[in-house]
Amino acid sequence: MYGFEALTFNIHGGYLEAVVRGHRSSLLTASDYNNLCQCETLDDIKMHLSATEYGPYLQNEPSPLHTTTIVEKCTLKLVDEYKHMLCQATEPLSTFLEYITYGHMIDNVVLIVTGTLHERDVQELLEKCHPLGMFDSIASLAVAQNMRELYRLVLVDTPLAPYFSECITSEDLDDMNIEIMRNTLYKAYLEDFYKFCKKLGGATAEIMTDLLAFEADKRAVNITINSIGTELTRDDRKKLYSNFGLLYPYGHEELAVCEDVDQVRGALEKYPAYQSIFAKLSYGESQMLDKAFYEEEVKRLCLAFEQQFHYGVFFAYMRLREQEIRNLMWISECVAQNQKSRVHDSVVFIF
Amino acid sequence: MGGTLVYQGRLTWLHLGRPSTTLFLNFSGLSGITNSGTESSVTAGGPLCLLTNRHEMSGFSLDPLWAAGPGLEWTGMGWIDLASARHSMGLSRVTSALFDLKSHSAATTLHVSQQDGDSSLLTDAMVEQPHFVLYKWSSSDSGKCFSGEIEIDKQEMQQSSSSELRHRGSSLHSELQEEYSARSTPSPKVEDQVQKERFKSLSVFGTLVSPKLRAAQLSFETALETLIKIANMRSAMLSAFAQVQKHIEATTK
User: Fold this and answer.
1) pTM of the predicted model as reported, rounded to 2 decimal places
2) By its UniProt entry, which InterPro entries does this protein fall under (chain B) (predicted)?
């Protein structure tokens, strides 16, 4: 019953909610980012991060540092925090936490399959996989020749199995089919996560459905913009949009026929929630669209912490940490390439 | 007799022995080129005029290169655009682990040929100069190259240098840019094929890639074209210098 979570939530979820709120307070602030943006070298960045919770993860890294090393170690911290929360969680929170990682699992599957198609070594591909998306039989993905084999040999025993019902064909895996597989899997995952959150009910359902609807809409816009000028047909494009969200179904009808960024703008400006995003961009511009969407997403994720006794804080924390890691990656790249004038192009302040 | 290279403002004068045989080399705005013959780096790029005995004037212009000067930054832009694409798409989507190791033909090739020196400068055409030609976006299916040669030949340079001498001024660089882009605009059919080849080469990262990755590809493509132009300009300059040296040696004998 919505509104009465305060009576029972803390029995099973109180400790972990306190843990995640503690982690949230350690997210980098605007003054941390200002200091980082003024660094001249990656070693300076390491020195500034040593005063944060990333310190223990970076302190033993030898110079010269690379941007990939910084990202890898920061991600390791996130993984450790997640694993601690997962092993302490009971149902249904444990299932909720597992749902958060299925997106990374899909990315890892696609990485292994694409790399195998390009005759890359499996060990090399496994090193590039996201640690949150690893599962036991992931290395066996390399033997599959088509999607049917992919499902039968490997994925049938993974949490992604239910999402494959729309993907199973005997067609050989090529670049286009893999891309369609990626987006179809992600669509099925989002819809499943949405249904699960709705079933949980209460504040979790209210907050998570809003966050997932935004995620679905953001993906629809990205798929539209990325497919402009490609061989993807309008019907195939529409099939990749999720069946929920603010843009479903009428916004999707308009997005499916868009041929340039201005038409996408025209389709989305009808929705007040997305007017503010496009108000920041000039006509024809798409470079800053990512940043505008990330800023909106961060605003919504931060609002999740304003309410207690729901699981949305765990999802919000994971996403905010991922945004922080993206920020650190961008700052490191700008410093390493001596392009500090571009550093504010993509950094999204969280607090 | 040897010569001394003197820099004065935007003019570089190469005095060679007798005052009657003074060669004026005017450089302005070109950076990064080293003329090993003079052991100096050229720090400016503008009209390059060779006057022999003050009666004969022929030259080739570095102004296309001056117009392409900002293009030298394209390499840096390409790398930052690539980082932007990785930021947008995710580290697992844009990674070297996805490069295709199956054997396939190169999308872009560089051919080096030896050309004879410019006979309009001097009678001695025995000096060879290497000439670089970039064949972009060769289709792996048909073996055809869609965007053709990218080069600046001597005739174009001479034509543009003579027009520059008549039309000096601040609008010069923009005029040359417009002229060059008009000359190099391909037909719509070729442009479509080139776009297809571009998408094909990016397909290692997936078929639905971010516009930032496409921007990175364009930046690197422009950087490559600029490097070829620089190489051809340098080759022409070195060849011209060699010819002038030979002529001076012949006349002093």
Assistant:
1) 0.79
2) Vma22/CCDC115
